[in-house]
Specification:
Blueprint lengths: L5 E5 L2 H7 L6 E4 L6 H18 L2 E5 L2 H6 L4 E4 L1 H6 L2 H6 L3 E6 L2 H9 L4 E4 L16 H12 L4 E4 L7 H6 L4 E4 L1 H4 L4 H12 L7
Parallel strand pairs: 1-2, 1-8, 2-3, 3-4, 4-5, 5-6, 6-7, 7-8
Helix pairs in contact: 1-2
């Protein structure tokens, strides 16, 4: 499986409606603390928007709702992975991405036979407090060797200016949140990311 090298992460269908039409081909919907009815509606709306734009939607955490709503890709953190019904996820034909931050988590992720593994934070991030120190580019190279041909997603503190280093150290896709959503002009920054990743494998 190939992932688009530009992996956008947003927290609402409103962001998807705003940015995906610019040419985004891979987006994760990561919502926290929303009532279930509203959550289902946002996932349903995001799925429709992505389907219409030819964009791959990945739903974070809520694997059961993702199955119910006919989504085909879910991303799980380590805690979510421990609680997830892997048999149900596989029976639904869903693809699976898993977050990792250290060697133990990588072993746990690989045991679940994911479709990609994410490593982070590569650089310091302002998105949330992390108990892990920045992993750095050398750790990306290590994960690359461990994963073989399995896609590797880099996340944490990434900017357009840091893409060269991330990809040259083995990442297949670069995930971004705040460099776009907290930018004064998110649309312009999204276009900059698309332009910067055009030459990397995976972008059609």
């Amino acid at each position: 499986m190939r992932l688009d090298p530009f992996y956008l992460i947003v927290d609402s269908a409103a962001w998807i409606e705003r940015l995906v039409p610019l040419g985004v081909k891979l987006v994760q919907l990561r919502i926290k603390d929303m009532p279930e009815a509203a959550l289902r509606e946002d996932i349903r709306r995001a799925r429709a928007l992505c389907a219409g734009a030819g964009c791959q939607l990945i739903v974070n955490d809520y694997w059961q709702i993702a199955i119910d709503e006919g989504c085909d890709f879910v991303h799980l953190g380590q805690e979510d992975l421990a609680d997830a019904d892997m048999a149900a996820i596989r029976a639904a034909g869903m693809k699976l991405g898993i977050s990792t931050h250290d060697e133990t988590e990588l072993e746990t992720a690989l045991a679940a036979q994911p479709d990609y593994v994410a490593l982070g934070p590569v650089y310091p991030t302002i998105l949330k407090q992390m108990k892990w120190a920045p992993q750095g580019l050398d750790r990306l190279s290590t994960w690359r060797r461990r994963l073989g041909t399995l896609p590797l997603v880099a996340i944490g503190g990434l900017t357009v200016e840091r893409l060269e280093g991330v990809f040259s150290h083995g990442a297949d896709s670069a995930a971004v949140v705040t460099d776009i959503t907290r930018h004064p002009d998110p649309e312009a920054r999204t276009r900059a990311w698309i332009a910067a990743t055009e030459r990397w494998p995976g972008r059609d």
